[in-house]
Design goal:
The protein is mostly helical. It has a domain of 73 residues. 61% of the residues lie in helices and 4% in strands. It is built from two helices and two strands. Strands 1-2 form a two-stranded antiparallel ribbon. The chain starts with 9 loop residues before the first strand and ends in a 20-residue tail after the last helix. One of its GO terms (cellular component) is mitochondrial inner membrane. It comes from Xiphophorus couchianus (Monterrey platyfish). Keywords: Membrane, Mitochondrion, Mitochondrion inner membrane, Transmembrane, Transmembrane helix.
């Protein structure tokens, strides 16, 4: 409809780069990787067509590598956040009760000054 705003830049019409986690960084890294790979290959061989192919392959490999690395780190971060949230929730629930681990007398604690 006329009142609806554009949803952002879509790569190949399918991948919404602004809303997909890691997509923007992965594409930027891929662009850098493609330029680096293509230029290095061209400088070493002076073959234009093959340098373009190497640059495209560099784009694909760098983009996918960056994408998976970022997604893996995000998944790790989500797991850590979930563990921390569960710990905070348990602290709130059990604080001050007999199940509170900080409330128990510790056997290995020294009984007096030494």
């Amino acid at each position: 409809s006329a009142g609806q705003r554009s949803s952002g830049f879509k790569l190949l019409g399918i991948l919404d780069v602004q809303r997909t986690p890691c997509a923007r960084d992965a594409i930027l890294h891929g662009a850098g990787g493609s330029v680096a790979a293509g230029m290095l290959f061209f400088l070493s061989t002076s073959r234009v067509r093959r340098s373009f192919d190497v640059g495209f392959a560099g784009f694909m490999l760098t983009t996918l590598g960056s994408w998976f690395y970022c997604r893996r780190n995000n998944a790790k971060l989500r797991v850590q956040q979930r563990v921390i949230q569960e710990g905070i929730r348990n602290k709130v629930v059990y604080e001050g009760t007999s199940l509170d681990p900080t409330n128990r007398p510790r056997a290995d604690a020294p009984s007096g000054p030494s």
